[in-house]
Design goal:
The complex is a heterodimer. Helix content of chain A is 73%, strand content 0%. Chain A is mainly alpha-helical. Chain A has one domain: MetI-like (MetI-like fold), CATH 1.10.3720.10. Classes of the chains: A mainly alpha, B alpha+beta.
Chain lengths: 271, 396
């Protein structure tokens, strides 16, 4: 690669990164600031906001809901993603291109449109809004990510591996279980973690489809009206950012391990 | 690999034929694979157009042809990975029509080797023993024996994804042979190896095949590989077997011009048939004059050939300095091109009078083994060419 010169570009890069991350860096700063007003100068160190957060029953309920939704949606999206990725990488069938395109479409559809459409359809079908409807919506938007990750995992596998296992006396199912599944397992874990992260901090669909049940993002949104609870939101935000970073790092770790395990050259990923 | 291990095959390769005469003649052995009128379509594409062949027990058989000729498809129909649309495939006398690949008495070595990257070498080799009722210790002993057989003793604990190409090949062989199949199918098993390794593995495969006595069916596009390893070779073009013969017959008496072109290097020249005897055909060949071709050397032309032609192997003639005497027929010509290969040299020679035939000069490529200390003649040198009518093949 050619070495890039010029301090103008360096300044641009620094400004760009500052714009991206400065607000996020403010989160932990004010989460530990001993004042209800979010403003400099800082007033001193406190962990009160974290204590207050832990003692808030509505917040606990929102957290439980969010975890339940995220776990369910990520498991559903990953399972469905396995079927789709396997079908698209291993078999040819009529309409494969359009079908895969439609599965990937929610990636670029405006989420608010998806949320409104789902709301209209669910209400028309007489399905009451609940955590369950949020799970459905989140499964829909997590699917493209799961399929993208899993397709890479499946397509990097040599087709002969499965045939070899079959040739050596296994059934089609046990060949899949003994050879394919272990080899795509890092991809599966990666898809689970990615979907979990997406679902956990998703706001629009949760806002439209949760009925009167709070999730973490909708709870945060509702608390923004009360200035005195903003420091607590800062504390909560700090934890969420940390968790997201952790999960995405884990997801990338598993994806890379999968690549290394099958002896492929890395062709990118989300991080 | 020990030094002794790598030296052995070289010594073997130098001897004329590593195939020993110890086994009963091919025709006396029972048929192991029989294909009768095997047809296969992929949509509109006719991949196998009525394949008939019999492969005998303990035979090293090769399916040879250019890519897309159907050789791999045929191998996969024998393995059971592909169904057939007509005809019968029998393995050891049993119709394979409703026998899926996982219970057929065949095992396969894949082109990519298909070594399971998440398992150790020993787990790979022992993979097919999962349903075997033997005890854990007995299975472990079988795995050790199989690894020993392919020269990979002590590699059992290694991670499979860290193996070299040659080692993967050996593990794939051990993994297939541990099940003691009646037939071992090999799909271009050497194509991923570099030249040196490939030549070494060729000889090791021959030795292994003689040791285990299992019928080997090899798919290859490399004619040299097929000639070196096989008892018999089926040359395939466009879903059909063009010739099924032993290596020597295939090389010396190709059944058609296309086979001749595919196997080794061959000169082709136009020919005019001027007479026909009881045991020969008389033809006029540019540069060679009028030649009586023995009936045994008359093969068929292929669809699309312009007319009768003559085939002539480069090593079937000898170049001599002017004035030298030689047996057989001798013609004269001028060296037009010299291609030096170290151990041998190709000379393109324009024979005197080769333009009498149709107004254009015809070149003949002749190969000569280089003799140490003797100079390679230059372009433009006049030479004598000694040859015999028995080394010409007529395609008509």
């Amino acid at each position: 690669m050619t070495r890039l010169r010029g301090s103008g570009l360096r300044v641009y890069t620094l400004l760009y990164l500052a714009f991206l991350y400065a607000p996020i860096i403010l989160l932990p700063i004010f989460a530990f600031n001993n004042a209800t007003v979010i403003a400099f100068p800082l007033q001193g160190f406190t962990t009160n906001w974290f204590v207050q957060m832990a003692e808030n029953p509505t917040l606990r309920q929102a957290l439980l809901n969010s975890l339940l939704i995220a776990v369910s949606a990520s498991v559903l999206a990953t399972c469905l993603g396995i079927f789709a990725a396997r079908a698209s990488t291993r078999f040819d069938f009529r309409g494969k291109g359009p079908v895969m395109g439609l599965i990937m479409l929610p990636l670029v559809l405006p989420e608010i449109i998806v949320a409104v459409s789902l709301l209209v359809v669910l209400l028309a079908a007489g399905v009451g809004l609940s955590i369950f409807t949020v799970i459905l919506g989140h499964t829909l938007i997590c699917m493209p990510y799961a399929v993208a990750i899993l397709s890479t995992a499946f397509s990097s596998l040599d087709k002969s591996l499965e045939e070899a296992a079959y040739d050596l006396g296994e059934t089609k199912w046990s060949a899949f279980r003994l050879v394919i599944l272990p080899l795509v397992m890092p991809g599966i874990v990666s898809a689970l973690l990615m979907s979990f992260t997406i679902s956990l901090d998703e706001f629009i669909i949760a806002f439209f489809l949760a009925g009167n049940q709070p999730t973490l993002p909708t709870y945060i949104f509702s608390q923004l009206r009360f200035p005195k609870s903003i420091p607590m939101i800062m504390a909560l935000g700090t934890l969420l950012v940390l968790m997201s970073i952790l999960l995405l790092t884990l997801a990338e770790y598993f994806r890379r391990r999968g690549v290394a395990r099958t002896g492929q050259t890395d062709t990118g990923g989300f991080i | 690999m020990t030094a002794a291990h790598t030296l052995q095959p070289v010594a073997l390769a130098a001897s004329a034929s590593p195939r020993g005469p110890a086994r009963p003649a091919l025709d006396d052995r029972k048929p192991m694979i029989e294909c009768r009128g095997v047809q296969k379509y992929y949509g509109d594409y006719h991949a196998l157009r009525g394949i008939d062949l019999t492969i005998r027990e303990g035979e090293f058989f090769s399916l040879l042809g250019p890519s897309g000729c159907g050789k791999t498809t045929l191998l996969r129909t024998i393995a059971g990975f592909e169904g057939i649309d007509g005809g019968v495939v029998l393995v050891d006398g049993r119709d394979m029509a409703n026998v899926p690949a996982n219970v057929r008495p065949t095992n396969m070595v894949f082109q990519s080797y298909a070594i399971f990257p998440h398992l150790t070498v020993a787990e790979n080799v022992g993979f097919g023993l999962r349903r075997d009722p033997r005890s854990r210790a007995e299975k472990a002993a079988a795995v050790d024996d199989a690894l020993d057989m392919v020269g990979m003793k002590g590699f059992g604990g290694r991670a499979a994804h860290a193996l070299s190409g040659g080692q993967r090949q050996r593990v794939a062989l051990a993994r297939a042979l541990i099940l003691k199949p009646k037939v071992l199918l090999l799909d271009e098993p050497l194509s991923a190896l570099d030249r040196k390794m490939r030549e070494q593995m060729q000889v090791e495969l021959i030795k292994l095949q003689r040791q285990v006595g299992i019928t080997f069916v090899l798919v290859t596009h490399d004619q040299e590989e097929a000639l070196v390893m096989s008892d018999r070779i089926a040359v395939m073009f466009e879903g059909e077997i063009a010739q099924l013969d032993g290596p020597e017959a295939l090389y010396a008496r190709p059944a058609s011009r296309r086979v001749a072109d595919f196997i080794g290097v061959m000169n082709f020249m136009p020919a005019r048939i001027v007479g026909e005897g009881a045991d020969h055909v008389t033809v006029a060949v540019p540069g060679f004059g009028t030649v009586d071709i023995p009936a045994a050397n008359v093969s068929r032309a292929d669809r699309g050939d312009a007319g009768p032609s003559i085939g002539f192997r480069p090593e079937a003639a000898t170049l001599l300095p002017m004035g030298a005497e030689a047996p057989g027929r001798v013609t004269e010509g001028v060296i037009d091109e010299v291609v030096y290969y170290g151990d041998m040299t190709y000379y393109d020679v324009i024979m005197d009078g080769s333009d009498d035939y149709d107004g254009v000069p015809h070149e003949v490529r002749i190969s000569m083994r280089n003799v140490f200390g003797r100079e390679v003649p230059d372009v433009g040198t006049r030479v004598r060419v000694s040859w015999s009518p028995g080394s010409l093949v007529l395609f008509r």
